[in-house]
Amino acid sequence: MQKLIVDKKFNNKKVSEFLFSKFNGLTKNTLYKAFRKKDIRINNVKISEDMAVHLNDVITIYIVDDLLYKNIEIPKVYEDDNILIVDKPSDIEVVGSDSVTSIFEKEYSFISPCHRLDRNTTGLLLFAKNKETLNILLDKFRNKEIEKHYLAKIYNAYENLSNTNVNFKQYNTPPLIKEGAPQTLTAYLFKDNKKSLVYISDTPKKGYVKIVTSFTVLEKHKKENYYLLDVELHTGKTHQIRAHLAHIGLPIIGDGKYGINEINKKFGCKTQQLRSYKLKFNFITDAGILNYLNGKEVQLK
């Protein structure tokens, strides 16, 4: 049995919409079976169909947990007494309810993420297993003593788009893409919390913060017109890689927010092709109990 209270976001919405947002394993079949059996109550009144709910309504459901939550397996890549590095799957947040963190909180007395990945970005995620470690790693990230590398599958928006409806004016002139040679991009980012979007400017503006992103071309597929990039974050801002690359005309394939929907459909990708695949500890100052990690590199195959 689960009991929930309707918040403002779901006022006047259907109870099904509210419940699907709360339980990642709930299916339509399970929900409508519960309606037929009158296993769902609104303010302690049994209901037999999908109805609207209102702010502060109390929803009680009599469905076993196994049918409410997905059994998400998150592989551990590296672990010692102080840190845990996991391979985060897509479609799950780093923090919050039903998140990577909440899953591991059931196993560890203390566990805290040291950085973030977008919901649909996969790959290496670093956790601290004690407060001392957390403080050290947060400091190392601030001082850029930990390298974060991503694999990004991007499309060149300036080539082979003659049969699309893409508006070229949204893109700036792309940099000269040199295979094998690292390139560093500098711009300015503004985060719009209301729209859950970020905006990129080539020049400083009020409210914008400086961002630095480097990339190296690992593979070029001329026929399909896409590249595989190694991207290194020098500043870790919300949606930085996705927005920065799209800003210069190299959108990540599968990105529904900053990419090109027509291209995403062409490649059959519903989520951004972005993966955190390498972490490297490059301590230049004392790391206390974590000095043993200096020089260590963790990489996904």
Spans with pLDDT under 50 lasting ≥5 residues? 161-169
Largest sheet: 11 strands, mixed
Structural class of the secondary structure composition?
alpha+beta
Count of individual helical segments: 6
| CATH class designation of the largest domain | Alpha Beta
Q: Tell me the number of strands.
A: 15
* Computed Rg: 22 Å
Number of domains: 3
Task: Kindly report the CATH topology of the largest domain.
Answer: Pseudouridine synthase
Order of helices and strands: EHHEEEEEHEEHEEEEEHHEE
CATH superfamily of the largest domain: Pseudouridine synthase
Instruction: Tell me the overall shape.
Output: globular
Report strand %: 25-35%
For the record, the CATH architecture of the largest domain stands as 2-Layer Sandwich
Q: Helical content, roughly?
A: 10-25%
Estimate the mean pLDDT confidence: 91
Separation of the first and last Cα atoms:
42 Å
